[in-house]
Predict the structure.
Amino acid sequence: MADLAKLAGVSKITVSRALGDSPLVTSETRERIQALARKHGYKLNLSARNLRLRRSHTVAVIVEMKPSSGRTMWDPYPLSLLGGISQELTSAGYSVLLTTRHDAGNAAVRAADGLILLGQGVHQDAVKLYDRLGLPMVVWGAESAHDSHVVVGSDNRQGGASVAERFLSIGRRHPVFIGNSDHPEMAQRLHGFVDELAGHGIKPLLLRRVDWTLESGVEAVRSLTRRKVRFDAIFACSDLLAMGAIRALVELGFTVPNDVSVVGYDDTPHGAGFLPPLSTVRQNWQEGGMLLARKVLALIDGQPVASQMLPTNLVVRAT
Amino acid sequence: MADLAKLAGVSKITVSRALGDSPLVTSETRERIQALARKHGYKLNLSARNLRLRRSHTVAVIVEMKPSSGRTMWDPYPLSLLGGISQELTSAGYSVLLTTRHDAGNAAVRAADGLILLGQGVHQDAVKLYDRLGLPMVVWGAESAHDSHVVVGSDNRQGGASVAERFLSIGRRHPVFIGNSDHPEMAQRLHGFVDELAGHGIKPLLLRRVDWTLESGVEAVRSLTRRKVRFDAIFACSDLLAMGAIRALVELGFTVPNDVSVVGYDDTPHGAGFLPPLSTVRQNWQEGGMLLARKVLALIDGQPVASQMLPTNLVVRAT
DNA sequence: CGGGCGAATGTTACCGATATCAAGACATCG
DNA sequence: CGATGTCTTGATATCGGTAACATTCGCCCG
């Protein structure tokens, strides 16, 4: 910047102002200096600016990823969520710092202007951990009554309710829920499901499964038949679970959807390609990401921000 | 740091040295100062350090994402790749800056110490664009003879060849390839496939499909039967294509794998849950990510670095 | 006993930007 | 015509670290 100043025959500060589109400089000098900057490939030094401005223009996104192997990040938090976040933040001039949960104390994270937490649903303690940093923070997941974070998520309650509605409307009377009610988001799906059914005097069977894997779905259905339970509809908390369930059903001689209706959750492309094509509840992740980003930015800006749930919609395919 | 210095009764620089584990300070003072820092919750200011050190300790990861909607990032570049990158970089003290292709000129990207490009396979021009920044750069994808970037990818050639081998070993003689040979990675899968078959005097039918969607797979198979082509094996370049193909085959009255063998690519969890479970070629993304990270770090370090292809392996399931 | 050497710590300058306050040029006004 | 105000630009200090060079001190050795 000093060099540019010399070239333009002005002082450093004038260059700074010109490049920052400050109204304090004549439009003439501004343009002259900007042209000069372009010509010489001048690059602003972000560290210097951040140092002086005492902010980092960075939002840290903390993703829950089991480190090596295990559950990959395939299922619950697809990249489109990250895509939405990234798109929105960078277009606001912010950088996106990606970290996993395990470098919590990371200096770079602490230096961020704001935090977005993804996939912390299971670990409320993790949320508290980051809370201590005292940074503007937005969490993806389910809203819970007794804590005060800003939460963005899809309306899991409504998602569950819409499945119940569908089951009722096609005459199903013995529904089963497969999922993990300890997980806040899943618990809400369950609540929506149960409440809607309760309105019609029906109480679903709850089948608790911790894993979201295919095998888990298979096993769930097998256990149902082992216990000789009567059922005609399954609401699985993820597409993978649903696919596992269908697989087991077919193996056991049931037909889908004639004997048993099955609905999954997430609307993964692979679910759509399943045979038969899976009915499922869709969440709009891209938009969720954009919303998350906008909320942190608002918080950083000091504006009041409220939690928000995005609507979901039931995609009825062949199951 | 100045405050800490006052508290400890030493100078700033001694504090700096103590916290940086420099051998220039007595272990006694070092520990005293470190304890003091912990006690008072001292936080290093990264901007200041980066400014002084003239480096950002940051690697930018540039991801090809269609902005709004369209193909989400589900299919080709799963999060586990990012996970591997992030894990490796942060444990080396680096930050991961996530950006999409569309904020190319981004000041933060230019300030990074290194670049990792993901999903640029289709856009060789994008690679050149970033090349101009003159930063250490590593690209995920297929190695091509006529450019000089450091490339990490999975061995698509070998992947294709292994499918061919399998087809031959089970007596298939009329194989079809579905994919987009303009895409470098896919082209190599095709080459591996074709070369291996050629060794046995067989020439596969090439069915060019640009999209990696389910519908595209369906359509591909329909066009085959419309043209009354004889075929007994399909190698699809993605699991989704394969699932679409199978779906169409079943609709058209073929049985899989009796009439037609089908193999996909990527080993997605959903492919494994498909009915019937999909045979596919697996790539180890997590490891790919870690390798990418290690290579950029080595480049930043000034060490010589070579491209590297990771082995793939064929997972034979029911198709 | 003084010069020399090494270990521990300190002084000063600097990285590259921006905020604050000051100053010069020029127009307006009583 | 001098006072006042507006517009544009500049000098200086500062953000929080670290490198280079300087200093102090104790010890060894001839």
In short: Chain B touches chain A through 63 residues (CB under 8 Å).
